What does this fold into?
Amino acid sequence: MSKQALLEINDLLVAFGGFIAIDHVSLSVLHGEIRCIIGPNGAGKTTLLDAICGKTQASQGSIFFAGIRIDNESEFKRTRLGMGRKFQTPSVYDDLTVYQNIQISVPKGQSMLSAIFNQDYQFDDEIQAVAVTTNLENLLTTQAGTLSHGQKQWLEIAMLLVQHPKLLLLDEPVAGMSLKERDQTVDLIQRISATQAIVVIEHDMDFVKKLSGNVTVLHQGAILCEGSIEQVQIDPRVREVYLGD
Ligand SMILES: Nc1ncnc2c1ncn2[C@@H]1O[C@H](COP(=O)(O)OP(=O)(O)OP(=O)(O)O)[C@@H](O)[C@H]1O
Ligand SMILES: [Mg+2]
It folds into this structure.
């Protein structure tokens, strides 16, 4: 395993019965890196994140995270080691306020300690800080059910950030967002990449371009090519997959 890689995937294979959804994928993500995964519908992007976070078991290959082999570990253990996963459809508690949604995401050990030592104020500061990072500082007392789809996406990211993940796995975080919200999400992701690595799946090429991270193109479960968005966009294999050139 290379020294600075936070996540290293070697020869990963995920099969559903006889169908190969992830086909011998090898990939590394460095500390502080923004890695975009793009590819047509059904390319295997979500399945790749599922295999990384432990929602789906790999059939073959290995995954190392922060130097620890994790492909046989549970989803829970991987979360504890510092993986935060955001799914394609945001799931927040509609009846609770933005503040309460973030508060209940504070890891249990920490919230129990805070109750014993009466350190609620500390978490209050942290919740406020996370809300500022995710553009939600003026919505803390708003019921989550009344937020726009885009704001719910940010709230889900806030609920992950309060757990201090080393790696964030974001599946289509700007789906359903306005152009302005997309640009705000670019800023948000670039801000948080100072403290964590981020793997982001996205279809919106303009958004991927603005993120200016490294891009991996998946097609039929395999890596087609990697590079900057400018490099992958002129790759004839990518043009064929996307445009049928
Ligand atoms: N649990 C499962 N059982 C069987 N096949 C599955 C399962 N999950 C995913 N697949 C199949 O694996 C392939 C990859 O699906 P996946 O959801 O990873 O694609 P994706 O790249 O995320 O697509 P999209 O852009 O539409 O979200 C698809 O053909 C899908 O039908
Ligand atoms: Mg998907």
Observations:
- The radius of gyration is 18 Å.
- The mean pLDDT is 90.
- The first helix runs from residue 45 to 53.
- Residues 5-91+164-243 form a domain with the Rossmann fold fold (CATH 3.40.50.300).
